[in-house]
What we know:
Layout: E1 14-23, E2 26-32, E3 36-40, H1 47-63, H2 65-70, H3 75-78, E4 89-97, E5 107-114, E6 119-129, E7 132-139, E8 142-148, E9 162-165, H4 172-175, H5 185-196, E10 199-201, H6 205-208, E11 212-213, H7 229-239, H8 241-254, E12 258-268, E13 271-280, E14 287-288, H9 294-306, E15 314-318, H10 329-339, E16 344-349, H11 352-355, E17 363-365, E18 367-368, E19 374-375, H12 381-390, H13 396-402
Parallel strand pairs: 3-16, 3-17, 10-15, 15-16
Antiparallel strand pairs: 1-2, 1-4, 4-5, 5-6, 6-7, 7-8, 8-9, 11-13, 12-13, 13-14, 18-19
Helix pairs in contact: 7-8
Domain Endonuclease GajA/Old nuclease/RecF-like AAA: 17-58
Protein name: AAA family ATPase
Domain ATPase AAA-type core: 260-356
Amino acid sequence: MRDVERVSTVTDHRLFSLEVENFRSLRQVTLPLGPVNVLVGPNGAGKTNVLEVFRFLADIVHTDLVPALDARGGFERLVFHGGTEPATYLRIGIKGSWSPTPGDRQEEYDLRITGAPFTREETFRSSADRHVLRTITVSGNSAITRAAGPDTSAPLPEQPGDEIGIQPLSSGLSTLPRLSDEKFGPITEQVAGLLRGFRIFEVNVRAAAQPTLAPLRSGDGIASDASNLSTFLLWLSANHPDAWERLHADVADVLPQLEAIEFDHVRLAGQPTVLAMLQERGLREPTPLPDASFGTIRLLGLLAMLHDPYPPALTCVEEIDHGLHPQVLELLVERVREAGDKTQFIIATHSPALADRLKPEELIVCERGDDGSSLIPAISRNKVEQIVRASEGLPLGELWFSGALGGDL
C-alpha cells in the first residue's frame, strides 16, 4: 500500500547566507550559501563549528535557549576564546526564503546573546504577504511586531506596534511559533520550521546493519544515523518504485557484484523486524546486511538519504567520503546536486578526490587564523574562479592539495 501521508519538502525554502560572530572558533564569519556547499580544510579549521551553529538553532527550536546553551556547557563555553580580549556576546544571523509568499524576497532571523548579565535579542523579518514586510523584535520580556511597506530599504515606522509578553530567558524562536496570534505565530513558525527539520547525517554503520522495526511510521524518513536503513529501504521499494529503481541502479553501478536487494522479515522479542539482504553474483545465499563491508553499508545509507523523496530543508554531512572508494565519489557528487533541488547541503570533507569533482561555487575553503579564529571562506568565490581559469582548468582538489587555494590539509 502506497504511503500518502508524508508531505514533501517545499523546495523554495532556502538559506542565502549565514553570519556568525564569536561562536566557538567562528569569530566573524559571513558565508554565502548555495544549493551545495562543501567545506574543505584541515582539522580544527572550524568546519564542524559551522554545522554546530545550525544544530544549536535547531536545539533552540526544540528545547528553548537556556537548555540549548546548557547542553553545550553554557555561554562561557560556547563563546569565542581567542584574541586579546574576552568576547562578551555571540551572534547568529541567517538570511533566506522560508515563507510561502510568492516572489523574490529575502527574509531574516538574527539572534544576539550576551553574558554577565545574560540577555538575548532576536529579530524576525518576513514577508507577511505581497505588500507587507513584518518585523518582530524580541528583547527583555516582550516581543513587538511592526509592519512596513514593500520597500525594505525604508525605515520601519516609529509608531508602537503590537506587543506581547515573553519570559526574559526564553527564545522567540522556540515560544512564538506556538502562538495562535496571526501577527506572531505564523511568521516565526516559518523560520522555526526550516530549522526544526535540520539534520546532520552520519551513517552509524553498526546500527544501520541491524534488523529494524517494520513498518516505517508515517512521517518518518531515513534516520540521521541511518539506524532504520532496512525499514527505510523496504518502505522506499513499496511506496516510491521510481526512487527505488534509481537507488538500486546506483548501487549496482558502484557495486557490480550486487544483483538485488531483498528483505527478510523476522520477529525479535515479539516485534516484527526487517533486514536487508544483498544478493551477490556467484553466492548461493544472500548476504545479510550485518555481514556486508563497512563501505557497502555506509554507501547504502548515503544513497538512501540522497534518494529520500521527502528530505528536510537543510542537510549537513560530515566526512561524506569516509570509508568509500574514490571511484564512488563521482556518483555521490552527482546525486548530491540532484538532491539539492529538494534539500540544501552543507558538507565537510578532507578529501581532495571529492574536491576534484566540485564546481568553484560549491567549494568553501576553511583555515584557522593566528588568533584561533576560523577564516571561512578563506578565499572568495571570485578568487577561486580566477585561480581555476589561470590554472587552465586544473581540478579543484589538485589546486587545494597544492596550496594554491589555501586551507592546508
